[in-house]
User: Which sequence fits this backbone?
């Protein structure tokens, strides 16, 4: 339905009123929650720099990628590989006062791949859900005999990771892979409150408060995957994983709680359109909705993700190729404030690779610029820039 | 084993990620994470699991006080009693020569007066204003003498001391509060040689009394000495002697302790309290909580009647008691002080009803963190004791709720960290 035209003055008043309404909108005021504080935390895209630059298109990527999404992709590498991916992230959080900055750093992924005959064995450790946050804010205790300003600090340090032991076997163009391992984690929750000393010495200085708790998480996961590759020009793959219920154990109280973990499906493929141009895409779905009944303080919904990109291998540095990469990805976030809508993370990705020592050492660097959530809709809003720096040593 | 495994897992996670910068632009209402509120809780005696209190008197007595009071007021009559048992039979005439005293040719009492604490006339007295020293007809016991008794169970012939021969008088008619000197001398006359020879023979018995005639004046004497002119040959040597025993007796006697808790006065009074704190109040757990601040509060009752009202500020402190003061009595062993400083008993503030507060944070923190502590025993006293006749009384557990003693706490209960 369209509105009838209105006089200009009325329109101006309307715009002004809208602006005032926006300034006072509680959604904006509430948008101060870091996404890592919701539910089991923020999912971490634990991939190497190459995959990250290609929009997270990890599954079925020609040339191999360090990721733990599909055990069948172990055969994408030509030989032994060991790699480490660092993922520093800078976040701008929309707050009541405007914006606030935070930084996080993490080792997103460590993986080793060893071909043994027709078999390929892999061991990897990845960060899955990030629960880190640190908020510091001032407040005032008002008593019958005075006011006591204080600074409160709440810190969560920890998250959920997984150790993955994979085995894959190539059968002609087809690879079958299985993997399994523990999903584990820990979370240290700390709250402290420090009261300001009265400069006049008239009021007592209140004893500071510091309290903490520690949680551990434990579950296990199995995953199966397939990959099919044709002549080094085309590769597709897919995987399904099942994770047992995650048991959270509060160490100091003995309280335990179980959270159903999602069944996850991932698929993707890549094609070499020309000797210098590669196209890759991946997607997936995680059935987080099965954990709906396990959370009291946040909403939970299933997650769809997808991403893709192109790799252009035209540039060289000396004798080494320097592939340039560009991509885009999106991913739903499984946890959101109650009464809000599920948030989505989107990012433009880019990066480059550098192969040295005749391909024995590879450095992949990627950057992501994106955002997650929208204050008025999802109750939080963050923009971020993330870097992935992956160093891998390879022996053909 | 579980701890080791948890530590390893935690280390892995710590290595995997960390937050480097804090988010600071966040409101307390919306801040993520768990936290327990810090709250103020006031407990009156009736709110405790148990609360008992009492007052014991006699921790400092006039005979041990560092001062004496000589007064002639409408509400207070007071006399100083003194005995000098060290009247010399020889004197040092130079650094090497000591000779026998032939006679005493002059004598006076030197009194150092605390003019700040004394009540002195604003203008010259129209009526007589004099200090007189009398020989006592009967002996007294320093620690037992009162206005009515020379010693425990032995009454004076006349209340106020059995005054004998007048030894000397100092007229003070012309002096006012502004001109009153810090030191005055009461000349002793008559047959002083005979008097002091007799005192020397009897170790100063029976002693002397110092009395005042001047309605409305109170002298607080902080030091007393007997100055003697001793003739030895052709030399007169002045010697000074401090009293071997000294006290003051006054009328009326202090009122008996009622339902209130008393601090100060002479004999000095202490308040003793034994209480059991509830484990939780209004849903807030106290045991195990962080005690951010705690004070023990006494609420003043009405201003005491003269002459026992506090007229100037004095200090008071609280101390722990290692036994049950209600069953062990006034000699219950004293423990450490609560807090490092002393609180001020300011008569104006007390008259206005302002509570007297003693810091008790450390004590309550100990209670909070130690489940085995059930009862807390406290004592309250003036510091030092016996410095003034003035005192104050405070509400006890038997008083109306508004006057009951209690605790004011700032408490942060343990945080109930939530699972995700």
Assistant:
């Amino acid at each position: 339905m369209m509105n009838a035209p209105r006089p200009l003055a009325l329109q101006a008043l309307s715009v002004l009123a809208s602006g005032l309404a926006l300034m006072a909108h509680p959604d904006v005021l509430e948008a101060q929650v870091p996404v890592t504080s919701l539910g089991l935390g923020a999912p971490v895209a634990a991939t190497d720099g190459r995959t990250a630059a290609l929009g997270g298109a990890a599954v079925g990527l020609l040339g191999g990628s360090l990721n733990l999404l599909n055990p069948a992709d172990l055969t994408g590498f030509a030989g032994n590989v060991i790699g480490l991916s660092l993922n520093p992230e800078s976040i701008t959080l929309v707050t009541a006062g405007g914006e606030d900055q935070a930084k996080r750093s993490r080792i997103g992924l460590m993986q080793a791949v060893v071909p043994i005959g027709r078999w390929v064995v892999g061991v990897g450790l990845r960060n899955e859900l990030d629960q880190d946050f640190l908020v510091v804010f001032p407040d005032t205790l008002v008593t019958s005999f005075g006011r006591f300003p204080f600074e409160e600090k709440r810190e969560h340090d920890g998250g959920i990771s997984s150790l993955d032991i994979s085995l894959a076997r190539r059968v002609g163009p087809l690879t079958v892979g299985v993997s399994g391992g523990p999903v584990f984690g820990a979370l240290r929750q700390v709250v402290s409150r420090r009261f300001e000393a009265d400069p006049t010495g008239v009021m007592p200085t209140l004893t500071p408060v510091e309290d903490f708790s520690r949680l551990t998480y434990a579950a296990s996961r199995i995953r199966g995957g397939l990959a099919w590759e044709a002549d080094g020009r085309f590769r597709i793959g897919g995987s399904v994983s099942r994770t047992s219920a995650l048991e959270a154990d509060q160490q100091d109280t003995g309280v335990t709680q179980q959270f159903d973990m999602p069944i996850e499906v991932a698929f993707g493929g890549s094609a070499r359109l020309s000797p210098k141009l590669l196209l890759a895409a991946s997607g997936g779905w995680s059935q987080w909705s099965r954990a709906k009944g396990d959370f009291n303080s946040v909403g939970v919904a299933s997650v769809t993700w997808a991403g893709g990109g192109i790799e252009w291998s035209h540039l060289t540095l000396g004798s080494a190729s320097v592939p340039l990469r560009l991509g885009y990805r999106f991913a739903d976030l499984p946890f959101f404030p109650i009464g809000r809508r599920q948030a989505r993370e989107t990012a433009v990705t880019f990066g480059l690779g550098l192969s040295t020592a005749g391909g024995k050492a590879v450095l992949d660097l990627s950057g992501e610029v994106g955002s997650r959530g929208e204050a008025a809709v999802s109750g939080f809003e963050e923009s971020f820039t993330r870097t992935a720096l992956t160093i891998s040593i390879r022996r053909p | 084993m579980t701890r080791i495994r948890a530590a390893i897992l935690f280390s892995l996670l710590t290595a995997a990620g960390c937050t480097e910068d804090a988010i600071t632009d966040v409101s307390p209402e919306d801040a993520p994470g768990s936290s327990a509120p810090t709250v103020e809780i006031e407990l009156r005696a009736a709110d405790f699991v148990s609360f008992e209190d009492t007052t014991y008197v006699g921790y400092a007595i006039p005979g041990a006080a560092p001062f004496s009071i000589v007064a002639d007021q409408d509400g207070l009559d007071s006399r100083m009693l003194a005995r000098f048992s060290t009247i010399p039979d020889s004197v040092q005439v130079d650094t090497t020569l000591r000779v026998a005293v032939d006679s005493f040719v002059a004598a006076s009492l030197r009194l150092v007066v605390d003019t700040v604490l004394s009540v002195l006339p604003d203008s010259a007295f129209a009526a007589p204003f004099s200090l007189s020293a009398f020989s006592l007809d009967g002996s007294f016991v320093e620690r037992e003498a009162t206005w009515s008794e020379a010693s425990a169970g032995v009454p004076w012939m006349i209340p106020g001391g059995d005054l004998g021969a007048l030894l000397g008088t100092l007229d003070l008619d012309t002096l006012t509060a502004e001109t009153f000197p810090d030191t005055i001398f009461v000349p002793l006359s008559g047959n002083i040689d005979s008097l002091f020879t007799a005192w020397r023979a009897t170790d100063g018995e029976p002693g002397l009394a110092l009395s005042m005639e001047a309605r409305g004046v109170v002298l607080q004497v902080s030091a007393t000495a007997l100055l003697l002119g001793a003739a030895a040959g052709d030399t007169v040597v002045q010697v000074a002697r401090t009293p071997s025993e000294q006290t003051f007796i006054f009328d009326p006697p202090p009122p008996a302790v009622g339902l209130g808790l008393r601090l100060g006065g002479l004999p000095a009074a202490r308040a003793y309290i034994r209480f059991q704190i509830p484990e939780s109040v209004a849903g807030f757990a106290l045991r195990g909580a962080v005690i951010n601040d705690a004070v023990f509060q006494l609420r003043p009752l009405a201003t005491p009647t003269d002459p026992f009202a506090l007229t100037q500020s004095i200090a008071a402190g609280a101390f722990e008691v290692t036994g049950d003061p209600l069953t062990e009595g006034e000699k219950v062993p004293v423990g450490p002080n609560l807090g490092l400083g002393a609180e001020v008993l300011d008569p104006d503030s007390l008259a206005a009803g302002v509570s007297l507060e003693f810091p008790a944070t450390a004590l309550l923190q100990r209670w909070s963190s130690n489940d085995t502590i059930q009862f807390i025993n406290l004592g309250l006293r003036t510091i030092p004791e016996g410095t003034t006749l003035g005192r104050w009384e405070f509400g006890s557990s038997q008083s109306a709720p508004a006057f009951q003693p209690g605790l004011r706490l700032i408490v942060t209960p343990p945080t109930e960290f939530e699972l995700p």
Q: What stands out?
A: Chain A has a mean pLDDT of 88. Residues 8-23 of chain A form the longest helix (16 residues). The two ends of chain A are 65 Å apart (CA to CA).
